[in-house]
Write a structure and sequence with these properties.
The protein is of the alpha+beta class and about 550 residues long. The protein is built from 17 helices and 19 strands.
Length: about 550
């Protein structure tokens, strides 16, 4: 089993060495950031057009999807800007770190909001407190838990926001205090949840804030000019942006189209400038040498609802193990993704950093196979049925919630066929819009839901903290006291080896509990116009960075 796992990692790493694939954040990026000063070649086009499936929200603190992140990073900017894993100055032109590594002091540059007012340290302080305010129920609040008293304020244990370790010293100086030294902390500040918002503007608009282009201020490379919901977003170059000399695009148009084949047709008709290749056509485009491939960083799984009491099998560990053993992940990725994805039997992406190398290589876990083990699946199902007093497996009904696009539907149908064949239970597919799926996931309105996560930073914590009992992303309400204890301890542990050992123990507990059903590690094939340069596709954070893109 260990050889099988290491083979998967080796394949991933070998593939990532291919020139067309982006590598881990410790590797030099293929596309370089626009240099300081100097002119590029004359541009022949200044409008970039592409598509996303849906943009549920553009509120920095309340959004929780990669499409939203791709949009927000165009018209807004945080303290830093992360370009393919490399931290660059953003609204903060520099920062100091205390000797103990627990206090960060950010010095802001002169910058303006789109209404002409100054971007201040108070805007960042307010944004972080807004993120953590329990009455806002921001799904990304956990991202700030490394800040002193952030978790306590978010949970209501502390009611005074002044006790949270974030403070505007003056208009241009922001101080953030951490609960322990954290090497990846600065890189997390490029998450939109940490982006500034102006207190008086937000409070004036109330519930209307960030619901339309004229209900949102911009401070980034572009200004949000128009937003036709579920249709089109238009960004225009910000003449007051501090690095505007290196922004070559005048306009960015982001169309909202969910069907992958329609998107490809738009690309081939010249309506958009780049797009992902539909799964069914990946082989064709790769054979023709047209497709580029990158590791998108997303792990995908079936999330299980532990609070669906009307379906007690979901709370039964033997049933959950039966699901895990019933799925043939090798056949699944081959059939549903044409082999573009890799079968996953654990949670943490194989590219996450460990002690001296990759965490998954240093800490292997071999519990579930990549091929289905039908004998074990039926054995665990029989145990579950006995415990639940069920005689016919068809009495066990589960609905699998997915978004309504063709690629996801195909993946769900493959799973449906495998589970029905290997377990004999009733496995239904429930298709909803992408926005509705996100809402259902957050609210816990599902039996099983197709879920995934792209890493926010290069550390196993970015995956494991999602399963803490109190984590706002834990829509299935998985809960294990020992798991929680290990994650809390890892959050303050400074010894790297001990910390990684805690992660390994926690991930093992999660898998032995069958707290979820791992499915795949995701890659994407994509195409772009030959003259489009410096467009970054990366596996950490937003998957598309167009800020410094240009056309030759």
């Amino acid at each position: 089993m260990r050889k099988r796992h290491l083979k998967l990692v080796a394949v991933l790493l070998a593939v990532l060495m291919i020139g067309t694939i982006l590598t881990s954040c410790t590797t030099k990026e293929q596309n370089t950031l626009a240099p300081e000063g100097g002119d590029k070649q004359p541009v022949t086009q200044d409008t970039l057009t592409f598509t996303v499936a849906s943009v549920p929200s553009i509120d920095p603190q309340m959004s929780n999807s990669i499409p939203s992140m791709n949009v927000i990073k165009g018209f807004s900017e945080g303290l830093i800007r992360n370009f393919q894993g490399e931290v660059k100055p953003g609204m903060a032109e520099k920062w100091d770190i205390s000797e103990d590594g627990m206090t960060y002091t950010f010095h802001l540059r002169d910058a303006k909001w789109s209404d002409g007012s100054s971007v201040t340290a108070q805007d960042f302080e307010y944004a972080i407190i807004r993120l953590l305010d329990p009455k806002n129920a921001a799904s990304y609040s956990f991202a700030a838990y490394i800040i002193q008293n952030a978790a306590e304020f978010n949970s209501g244990k502390i009611i005074d926001p002044a006790q949270v370790g974030v403070k505007a010293i003056d208009e241009k100086t922001l101080e953030i205090k951490l609960i322990n030294p954290t090497s990846y902390f600065v890189s997390t500040l490029d998450l939109p949840c940490f982006y500034p918002v102006k207190k008086d503007y937000v409070e004036k608009l109330g519930a209307d804030f960030a619901t339309a282009a004229d209900k949102m201020l911009s401070n980034g490379p572009f200004i949000l000019k128009d937003w036709k919901h579920e249709q089109e977003i238009v960004l225009e170059r910000n003449p007051n942006y501090w690095d505007q000399a290196n922004i070559k695009l005048n306009t960015v148009k982001i169309l909202q189209v969910s069907d992958a084949n329609t998107v490809l047709a738009m690309y081939e008709n010249g309506e958009i400038d780049f797009c992902d290749v539909p799964t069914s056509l990946v082989d064709k485009f790769q054979q023709e040498g047209k497709a580029k491939v990158y590791m998108s960083g997303a792990d995908d799984w079936m999330r299980i609802n532990f609070k669906r009491t009307e379906k007690p099998w979901l709370q039964n560990v033997n049933f959950r193990k039966a699901l895990n053993y019933a799925i043939d992940r090798e056949d699944y990725v081959k059939t549903a993704t044409k082999g573009l994805f890799f079968p996953a039997t654990r949670l943490v992406l194989p590219l996450m950093a460990g002690v001296n190398g990759y965490y998954c290589e240093e800490y292997p876990i071999n519990i579930y196979p990549t091929k289905a083990d039908t004998a074990k699946a039926k054995e665990y199902l029989e145990k579950a049925m006995q415990e639940l007093n069920i005689t016919d497996p068809k009495q066990i009904v589960v609905a699998y919630t997915i978004s309504d696009d063709d690629a996801t539907k195909l993946m769900a149908e493959v799973l449906q066929d495998q589970v029905t064949k290997n377990l004999g239970i009733t496995f239904e597919i429930k298709m909803v819009t992408y926005k509705q799926k996100l809402e259902n996931d957050t609210k816990g309105d599902f039996d099983l839901v197709y879920n995934g996560w792209g890493p926010d930073y290069d550390d196993p914590m970015t995956y494991l903290e999602l399963w803490e009992t109190t984590n706002s992303q834990n829509g299935g309400k998985y809960s294990n006291a020992e798991f929680d204890k290990l994650i809390a301890a890892a959050r303050v542990e400074t010894d790297k080896v001990k910390r990684m050992e805690m992660f390994h123990q926690a991930e093992t507990i999660l898998l032995e509990d069958a707290g979820f059903v791992p499915l795949q590690f995701r890659q994407r094939a994509w195409v772009s116009k030959d003259n489009l340069k410096n467009l970054a596709r990366f596996f950490i954070g937003a998957d598309t960075d167009y800020v410094y893109a240009y056309f030759e």
